[in-house]
Specification:
- It is a single chain.
- It contains two helices and two strands.
- With about 70 residues, it is α+β, with helices and mostly antiparallel strands.
- The chain has one domain.
- Strands 1-2 form a two-stranded parallel ribbon.
- Helix 2 links the parallel strand 1 and strand 2.
- It starts with 10 loop residues before the first helix and ends with a strand.
- The relative contact order is 0.26.
- The mean pLDDT is about 90.
Length: about 70
Amino acid sequence: MARYGETSFPPETIKKWVVDADKEGFSIRFHAIGDGAIRLAIDAYEEAQKANGKRDSRHSVEHIEGFSR
């Protein structure tokens, strides 16, 4: 999954946590450095929206830094 670097937990676990937290009404913030981390955050938010429906969740990606090549 990650284009560069590694995650501390498997991406599917992170996505599940995001879906579960979103279902409970939490706003989630990722601190993401690197294209893979940014993509994981966006994918997790998308999965949460598909599973739980649209709402004013205000999820965000903080300290975003991509690596373009």
